[in-house]
Write a sequence for this structure.
């Protein structure tokens, strides 16, 4: 058995087209702009596999699966605008396997409710997407940092299905997960992301799901979506945004030194940061990040979402 550890916001433009559409506009227009791109995405779905984008999603609370807020509405519009993938490879902050890197090869991955104390409505939700065993094994074979282990022991945890519920609500796109070897340093996870990039040419959407600022011991519950309520959270998110815009990947890998004054509070443990490094690694060096969403939930959880490639 694998070792296991579980645990005012605004949508932003993805392209020059959307920037023109959004000039002087707010969240409603941003969502409308995303919908305007959906037609081209549907046209792409009828074509052979194309190089897929890479995305990172700040997933926040499991409750986002059943909430209607600017973040979840942005996810829905984003899913409509993305080209339809042949499959989705998700690296979630909630599948941690110290000492191993595993890949899920289930035909029908289970919906995992890896949380407690939430409403029954959430506990009963299912995301019955099919798996992609053949592509999952190909993903494992691409990993050169270690010998990836094929397993059916996991499924789709809430870092994956709570966001895919909004991106692809029909659950009709195959999904598989890759675990995070929590015993390895940041550079290891970035390197695996680089190795997985070849899947993009097979029509696979690479998804990292975590939060770049995540400290559950220092949240402000009940605070509306919006800017950070604590300076250290905003400072770290701003430093990451700047390094990301410059594609200074080495600074982003060295997350503990990215903003020394705030890092210890913003990333007290790297479990939710590591998925971002998989997405960053899978992105081409010349692919500039496109910010899809930024802002905070519960005062200090950065919900930053980015896309690389179109």
């Amino acid at each position: 058995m694998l070792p296991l550890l579980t645990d005012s916001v605004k949508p932003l433009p993805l392209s020059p087209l959307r920037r023109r559409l959004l000039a002087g506009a707010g969240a409603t227009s941003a969502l409308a702009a995303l919908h305007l791109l959906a037609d081209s995405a549907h046209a792409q779905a009828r074509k052979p596999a194309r190089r897929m984008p890479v995305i990172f999603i700040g997933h926040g609370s499991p409750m986002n699966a059943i909430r209607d807020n600017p973040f979840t509405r942005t996810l829905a519009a984003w899913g409509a605008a993305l080209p339809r993938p042949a499959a989705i490879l998700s690296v979630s902050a909630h599948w941690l396997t110290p000492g191993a890197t595993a890949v899920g090869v289930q035909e029908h991955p289970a919906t995992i409710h890896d949380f407690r104390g939430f409403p029954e409505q959430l506990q009963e939700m299912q995301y019955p997407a099919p798996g992609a065993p053949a592509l999952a094994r190909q993903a494992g074979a691409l990993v050169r940092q270690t010998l990836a282990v094929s397993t059916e022991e996991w499924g789709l945890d809430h870092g994956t299905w709570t966001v895919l519920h909004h991106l692809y609500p029909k659950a009709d796109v195959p999904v598989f997960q890759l675990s995070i070897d929590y015993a390895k340093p940041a550079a290891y996870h970035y390197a695996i992301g680089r190795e997985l990039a070849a899947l993009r040419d097979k029509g696979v959407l690479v998804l990292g799901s975590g939060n770049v600022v995540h400290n559950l011991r220092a949240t402000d519950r009940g605070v509306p979506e919006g800017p950070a309520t604590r300076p250290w959270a905003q400072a770290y998110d701003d430093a990451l945004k700047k390094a990301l815009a410059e594609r200074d990947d080495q600074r982003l890998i060295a997350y503990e030194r990215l903003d020394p004054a705030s890092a210890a509070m913003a990333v007290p443990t790297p479990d939710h940061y590591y998925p971002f490094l998989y997405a960053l690694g899978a992105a081409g060096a010349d692919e500039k990040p496109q910010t899809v969403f930024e802002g905070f939930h519960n005062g200090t959880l950065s919900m930053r979402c980015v896309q690389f490639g179109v």
Summary: The longest strand covers residues 204-210. The chain has one domain: 10-308. Residues 1-30, 36-46 have pLDDT under 50 and may be disordered. The CA atoms of residues 143 and 195 lie 6 Å apart.
